[in-house]
């Protein structure tokens, strides 16, 4: 028997023609077992694999030729023409509109006055070409505008019911997969391009504070797409964007690495922007020499107003030599150099204000926690990020959509420096109602002494929510359920704590406690001595037993005590014993009868 294994997550334009070919072969006497695996690529790194009756393994495009040769033993066809169309099937696979135009035009011309691809009856050529057209969504528009293709396509479908049944079975697997993803709360099928050789993502935290849950989302999503998305396992880079020595420290750097470990995020490589200061300096010099950047000593308040109003700085037309001299003064750390900054020469009045000559280098004389006082100038985020992403071979820059206005600026920087472009995918920022997630504001809260520190249970940091009782597994699940969606939503904390409860409930032992403030003491008559009983910690017996003491003296919380009414009749949990003033469901052996002493105490 022939065995065909199909990667059901692979490109339908590739696998559907082969699946239909297998069904066609079975209708003509071949015994074929079709197995679907829920993966993008099989272990052989192919989307399709055939094992013949003799044990030979066939992969890729050779599978179509194998099926045709196997069926040729049964009936002779115009072999040369069929072989030609089996080869040309690959030209209908790309998802690029321009690449599809020519093969579709050739197919349209070929089908003029023809009911079948070859000869006067159905052949494997009809099956594979029909399957490629059916499996490639990019070809739908071209197909509908081609009269001969529409006629032939409908004719093949209408005269072969088994084709419709095979396609329906193939599509049902995709629907089940999407339904499962929807039930899980997130859709990770965002159709990232250029993933064949693996994805290289980066998580670029600034070491100026502890990770909060917004950073945790970025870290987990980048980790997911680097290690679990696409055909091959990719690479995750943790890059410390240490370009602002005024706010950064080694303490924050170490805490970020520790928190990433807690989250289960394991970078394949750790890098530092500060390791590339020399290269970035040289790249900025080249921008100035090319007339794509200039030095500006406009006062910051005036510069901000000019950018807002779309007014050019007087320094914009300054000569290249003067701009280079200003940049050198900045690098030397002179008093005059402190007055300058470097701006990219993009636009003065673009509608997108992120393109209005952004600052790309500025002075800072604070010692750097890694490079010390070696540098007096530092690149801004707008310059550093596109530079680093490109030279570190990042393939996909995943970041929150608060930077969407900067995407055009990001691309401009890479083009201006002659660097490889990096594909951008932006996802929604994780927002919580009544919660501050701005690192600047969180830093202010910590420095003001309003909280104990970054790990205060009231803080939305990874360490803060952990101290408040949130498990790391619950936090991971909550964040991954949000997925890479671009929809902006304000989340409620109750959702996180509901998930956390599901994680904790099966493993948390049960103990009894009451608030210590204003505790109420009651005494039970009829008990001469204390006794100890072994009680289960949880309905799960695996958590063991606990020792519970039963005695004359019982402590009640103030709120519970206030609910007791004078002469109220209370029964035990079995409903067999009556008493006044009692605790319901305490024990079938323990009760609090009415007494002057009890009443006065309560």
From TrEMBL:
The keyword ATP-binding applies. This is glutamate--tRNA ligase. It is found in: Cytoplasm. The keyword Ligase applies. It catalyses: tRNA(Glu) + L-glutamate + ATP = L-glutamyl-tRNA(Glu) + AMP + diphosphate. Belongs to the class-I aminoacyl-tRNA synthetase family. Glutamate--tRNA ligase type 2 subfamily. It comes from the Eukaryota. Its EC number is 6.1.1.17. It is an enzyme of class 6 (ligase). Pfam families: tRNA-synt_1c, tRNA-synt_1c_C. Residues 508-570 form the Glutamyl/glutaminyl-tRNA synthetase class Ib anti-codon binding domain. It comes from Aspergillus carbonarius (strain ITEM 5010). Keywords: Aminoacyl-tRNA synthetase, ATP-binding, Cytoplasm, Ligase, Nucleotide-binding, Protein biosynthesis. One of its GO terms (biological process) is glutamyl-tRNA aminoacylation. Residues 199-505 form the Glutamyl/glutaminyl-tRNA synthetase class Ib catalytic domain. NCBIfam families: gltX_arch.
């Amino acid at each position: 028997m022939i065995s065909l294994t199909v990667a059901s997550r692979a490109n339908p334009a590739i696998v559907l023609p082969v699946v239909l070919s297998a069904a066609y072969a079975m209708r003509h006497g071949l015994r074929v077992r079709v197995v679907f695996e829920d993966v993008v690529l099989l272990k052989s790194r192919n989307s399709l694999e055939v094992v013949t009756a003799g044990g030979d393994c066939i992969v890729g495009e050779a599978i179509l030729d194998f099926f045709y040769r196997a069926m040729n033993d049964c009936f002779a066809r115009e072999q040369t023409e069929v072989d030609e169309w089996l080869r040309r099937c690959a030209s209908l696979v790309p998802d690029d509109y321009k690449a599809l135009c020519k093969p579709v035009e050739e197919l349209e011309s070929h089908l003029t006055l023809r009911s079948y691809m070859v000869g006067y009856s159905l052949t494997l050529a009809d099956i594979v070409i029909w399957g490629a057209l059916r499996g490639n969504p990019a070809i739908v528009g071209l197909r509908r505008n081609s009269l001969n293709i529409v006629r032939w396509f409908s004719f093949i479908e209408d005269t072969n019911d088994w084709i419709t049944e095979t396609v329906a079975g193939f599509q049902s697997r995709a629907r089940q997969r999407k339904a499962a993803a929807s039930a899980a709360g997130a859709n990770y099928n965002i159709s990232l391009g250029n993933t064949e050789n693996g994805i290289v993502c980066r998580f670029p935290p600034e070491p100026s504070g502890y990770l909060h849950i917004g950073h945790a989302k970025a870290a987990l999503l980048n980790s997911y797409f680097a290690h679990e998305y696409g055909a091959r396992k990719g690479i995750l880079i943790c890059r410390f964007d240490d370009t602002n020595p005024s706010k950064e420290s080694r303490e924050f750097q170490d805490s970020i690495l520790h928190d990433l470990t807690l989250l289960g995020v394991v970078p394949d490589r750790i890098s530092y922007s500060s390791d590339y200061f020399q290269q970035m300096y040289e790249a900025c010099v080249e921008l100035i020499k090319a007339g794509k950047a200039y030095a500006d000593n406009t006062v910051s308040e005036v510069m901000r107003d000019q950018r807002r109003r779309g007014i050019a700085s007087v320094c914009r037309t300054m000569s290249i030599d003067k701009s280079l001299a200003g940049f050198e003064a900045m690098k030397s750390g002179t008093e005059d150099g402190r007055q300058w900054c470097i701006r990219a020469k993009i636009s003065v009045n673009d509608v997108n204000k992120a393109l209005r000559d952004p600052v790309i280098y500025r002075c800072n004389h604070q010692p750097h926690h890694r490079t010390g006082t070696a540098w007096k100038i530092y690149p801004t985020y707008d310059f550093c990020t596109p530079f680093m992403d490109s030279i570190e071979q990042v393939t996909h820059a995943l970041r929150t959509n608060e930077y969407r206005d900067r995407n055009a600026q990001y691309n401009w920087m890479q083009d201006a420096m002659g660097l490889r472009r990096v594909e951008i995918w932006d996802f929604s920022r994780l927002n919580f109602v009544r919660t501050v997630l701005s690192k600047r504001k969180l830093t202010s809260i910590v420095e003001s002494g309003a909280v104990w520190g970054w790990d205060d249970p009231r803080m939305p940091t990874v360490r803060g929510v952990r101290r408040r009782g949130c498990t790391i597994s619950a936090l991971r699940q909550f964040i991954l359920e949000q997925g890479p969606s671009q929809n902006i939503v304000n989340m409620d904390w109750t959702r996180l704590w509901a998930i956390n409860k599901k994680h904790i409930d099966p493993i948390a032992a049960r103990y009894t406690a009451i608030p210590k403030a204003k505790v109420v003491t009651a005494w039970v008559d009829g008990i001469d001595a204390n006794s100890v009983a072994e009680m289960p910690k949880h309905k799960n017996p695996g958590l063991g037993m606990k020792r519970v003491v039963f005695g004359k003296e019982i402590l009640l919380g103030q709120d519970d005590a206030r609910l007791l009414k004078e002469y109220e009749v209370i029964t035990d949990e079995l409903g067999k014993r009556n008493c006044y003033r009692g605790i319901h469901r305490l024990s079938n052996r323990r009760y609090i009868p009415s007494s002057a002493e009890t009443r006065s105490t309560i």
